[in-house]
Amino acid sequence: MQLHAPLSLPRHPLALALMGALSLGLVACGGNDDEPTFKAIELNIAHINDHHSQLEPIAAQELTLDGVATQVDLGGFARQTAVFKSLAGTPNLLKLHAGDAITGTLYYTFFKGEADARMMNSICFDAFVPGNHEFDDGDTALKGLLDALAAPANGGGSACKTATVAANVTPQAGTALAPTSGTPYLQPYTIKKIDGVDVGIVGLSPATKITNSSRPLATTQFQDEATAAQKAIDELKGTGVRHIVLLSHLGYDADKAIAPKLSDVDVIIGGDSHSLLGDFKAVGVTTSSGAYPTVVKNKSGETVCIGQAWEYAKAYGLMNVKFNEQGTVTQCGGQARLVIGDNFKRKDSAGAWQTMADADRQALVTKLATSNQVRVTTPEAAAAQTLSTYTSQVAAQKAVTIGNATEALCLVRLPGESTNRSTGVAGCETANTLARGSDAAQVVAEAFLTASKRADFALQNAGGVRIALPVGTLSMNTAFTILPFTNVLVEMNLTGAQVVAALEDAAANHLDNAQSTGSHPYAAGLRWNLDMGQAKGQRFSNVQVKNKTTGAWSAIDPAKTYVLVTNDFIAAGQDGYATLGTAYKAGAYVNTYLLYTQSFVDYVKAKGTIARPAAGDYSHQKVITKAGVTLP
User: Fold this and answer.
1) Sign of CA dihedral 250, 269, 104, 528
2) Quick one: which of 242, 258, 480, 499 could link to 327 by a disulfide (CB 3.0–4.6 Å)?
């Protein structure tokens, strides 16, 4: 428990008058107008983030349950609905979604947010902050999602009114998100009354990441996050609100960094980095980005509690925060928990996965009832029925087989990162600790290179590849889940010097500019050594090109012109690829009009089976982390 001295608030005559007139939860001030006293309250916050249209459970995920390797169904939005409904009796409860609700599966490809909106309304969040992927298809597509959330036919309207908050996003008047008549779609904050006390919820979207990595209107303005947050907090304070929750889609590291810049922030509920917070070693998940909750200090030296709940509706967080009579946090606790089904499988003596006998299953469910890491949950019936109306429409397309994977293709963004994005996929237990990085991104790049008749090598940004691929059947659903966006392949004419500069741009975007690690490069037909401890311009060395005819590797020639095939997103300079953007704007490219997802489908179909590339074909040959650790 951490206690702090009462915060001395500046005198605001109008604010104090409003506080008295509006009965904003204040009690007698003891004669000192500068230090109002608030009712001591306890706040509970249930939250998810980054569900990315992953509405169905993820099957056959391997966890360690009661000490034994066990396959489970992990997540699923109808299970999340059941969890949140079970919390309905929890006192002083806020329900928050920290962004990136859409893009990632065929549920978005086919329904453009309607299915997500209906499932979100089955929970009825108090507030939602737009993430960067809410802008992937522009402001109009985000408007469509928010219209679907508000539609009575989808469970919105009087039944559920979710506030969409983004203090640092300002659409131009007359555009999709700011119609000339009616209420703007985005508000800087919303206020919820908790046990008679007003609690402000301020939204923050990732400004640079959206402008660099998504497709907002050019007229939509994105302000500095810290400046916009403090302005909103100060406005709330001016109306007597003293308890502030920041609903952030900035990422875990950014949340820890912004807290010391802000006065009077109490809680940060975050998203974007897909961070699993807490200790899950007991269930076989050995990677965690930090403690749940993570406790830091704000600019005033007061406690700030930070929480995040992983990704893809796999987990939820429940944070408990205690405030004293000065409105200061005295204690925060809670836990993120994985949401699983009760259809368990374990290996038999021959090593084959078999469904557990019912008596054993029931015994395991009973043991797990006291677990702090997992929650066995039956899908909520009405939500499951709602989802089924969409599932039936996509099932036939999803079920089409395109090939098989004979090895797990693990998902990594940055070699050496703390988060294992492939947790639960057998064969990927240590993927994030290895120099080779992402098998999945590597194979995607191989598919692009195969699709191009002219290219010498292919380039793919790590964040554009969305899932790991377990051993087994690959379907159309696999393809549209691993590559869910509407990108096409372009071929670019670049000198060797420009190619190396583009690699340096990609690494600098996250190492120097504190942007997403999703910019990190992977390539086919191109390999390198990487030292992240060096300065920009010196990180990539021994860059080599593979001859497509002979298979021989040779040093890249800075003066020679090569043909690079990549997706049109980074070709246009997004995700920090400034060198590519300059060449693109100069017209040094040819649009193939090949949908990048279809290129992957065609590659898998042609090969029949796919596996990890040979060690010498990985783009990352040697990697030294920023901390100076050489990865195996």
Assistant:
1) positive
2) 242
